[in-house]
Amino acid sequence: MTAAEDSVPGSGRSMSRTEARTKALEVLFAADLRGVPAGTLLDDPEGGWVDEFTRTLVTTVADNRYDIDQLIGERAEGWTLDRMPGVDRNVLRLGLAELLYIDEVPPAVAIDEAVELAKSLSTDSSPRFVNGILAAVARDRDLL
Questions:
Q1: What confidence tens digit (pLDDT) does each residue in 9-34 have?
Q2: DSSP-assigned states of every residue in 43-100
């Protein structure tokens, strides 16, 4: 197992950090759609297995959601959170959680991973939108 993977002891399961981010996005998006706290979906048997990094991502977003949403709202010119596509909104939440609260993830990696999620799961204009907001926050906080 590489440093970029996590596992469940004794289970033989492992998940790359990229896979964990995708799973975290699925949990955040589902919680957003259902109008329930994201943490309640982490142990939902229908949602499948989640690793420790996925849990960390989801709980970090949940614990800091107000501040994260404030930052998104301040920088999303012409967009309110409610009008944003749900995938973009949650990719931004995930990216900001990593960027601001998870020290083990370098800022450039947090931004790049969020942009890649937007590329694979959202609209053609989403990667630039996500990159712009995350890069602006990183510059404002002297993280890049």
A1: 334 467 899 999 999 999 999 999 99
A2: T-GGG----HHHHHHHHHHHHTHHHHHHHHHHH-TT--TTTS-HHHHHHHHHHHHHHH
> What pTM value is reported for the model?
0.88
* Per-residue pLDDT at 141 exceeds 50: yes
Q: How many residues does the chain have?
A: 144
How many Cβ atoms are within 10 Å of 71's Cβ, its own excluded?
21
126, two tokens = 């989403």
Please report the domains of the chain, with CATH numbers, ordered by start residue: 15-140 (1.10.940.10)
Give residue 142's Cα distance to chain centre. 21
CB 104 within 8 A of CB 96: no
Cβ atoms of residues 59 and 20 within 8 Å: no
